[in-house]
Amino acid sequence: MFPNLPGVPALSKNNVIAAAVLVAAPLINNLLDKLKPHWGIYDVAGLKTVIEPDSFLGFDYRNETNISTYPIEQGGFASYNKVNTPFDARVKISKGSAVTGVGIGQSSTTTDRKDFLHIIDDMAASLDLYTLVTPEGRYSNVSLEEYEYRREHKNGTGIIIASLHFVQIMQASISTSSDNTSVAPDPVACPASAQLPQENGVCSAGSVLPASYSGN
Questions:
Q1: 163 with 120: CB under 8 angstroms?
Q2: Please, is 193 exposed, middle or buried when counting C-beta atoms within 10 Å of its C-beta (0-12, 13-18, 19+)?
Q3: What is the widest separation between alpha-carbon atoms in the chain?
Q4: What is the pLDDT of residues 44-86, one digit of tens each?
Q5: Which among 150, 170, 166, 140 has a CA at the least distance from the CA of 59?
Q6: Cα torsion at 39, 41, 45, 46 (round to 10°)?
Q7: How far apart, in Å, do the first and last CA atoms of the chain sit?
Q8: Rounded-to-integer distance, Cα 59 and Cα 46, Å
Q9: Which of 169, 185, 193, 197 is deepest in the core (most CB within 10 A)?
Q10: Residue 32 in 3-state DSSP?
Q11: Distance CA 89, CA 59 (A)
């Protein structure tokens, strides 16, 4: 029991607990949001979400390197170089609910699923780059190369499961030089009849051959 003070209505224990829960609920939700795993498909800067699925179902990553070799004696080979190749990642996401037309989850309407597929179509047709975010890391400068989606009875016809295949776009820097280099023209042999300034049998710079000279 809580003490009764003059002029103060008596408060029950249940009312105090309910008020405390009401005040603490937003703080608890914010804490849970920070602690939950972070998944997302963002723009190239990693700031804006480009698609918002209801769930992330899977993530596959592959990175390969090519090792160049050259033959040596007795049929052996030795390695002399190792080159990185673009990585690729497959992200499996879903949109919708198991029961069509019932408001379960973030989206379950036909319009939401249509918008979801339209966004994927636009991503595949675009030249934009994206950033994939998982709880373990970020994968930047990727482009959507291909995708597929399916709807199965066992998962509920209201759920679309899409598999997105991203490939890294490796951007190489091109160095340019401002040095001016002059290319000397090919020397032209002067015929004896040309009567032009010569240097060791070759027309000197600035010499102009007669229009009648055919080079034979």
A1: no
A2: exposed
A3: 132
A4: 998 899 999 999 999 999 998 888 777 777 767 677 787 888 9
A5: 166
A6: -10
A7: 122
A8: 18
A9: 169
A10: helix
A11: 7
- Do 140 and 93 form a contact (C-beta atoms < 8 A)? no
pLDDT tens-place string over residues 105-154 = 444 578 889 999 999 999 999 999 999 999 989 999 999 999 999 987 77
AA letter at 103: G
Alpha-helix runs per DSSP H in 36-181: 110-125
Q: If you count them, how many residues does the chain have?
A: 216
**Coil, strand or helix at 127:** coil
Residues forming beta bridges with residue 65, ordered by sequence position:
84
Amino acid present at 1: M
List the one residue out of 24, 54, 51, 70 whose CA is nearest residue 121. 51
Q: In what order do the strands lie in the sheet with 159-168?
A: 49-51, 40-43, 130-134, 137-150, 159-168, 88-96, 55-62
| CATH C-level class of 36-168 | mainly beta
Token pair of 214 as six digits: 């055919």
Do 93 and 50 meet the contact criterion of CB atoms below 8 Å apart?
Answer: no
Contact predicate 203/197, CB 8 Å:
yes
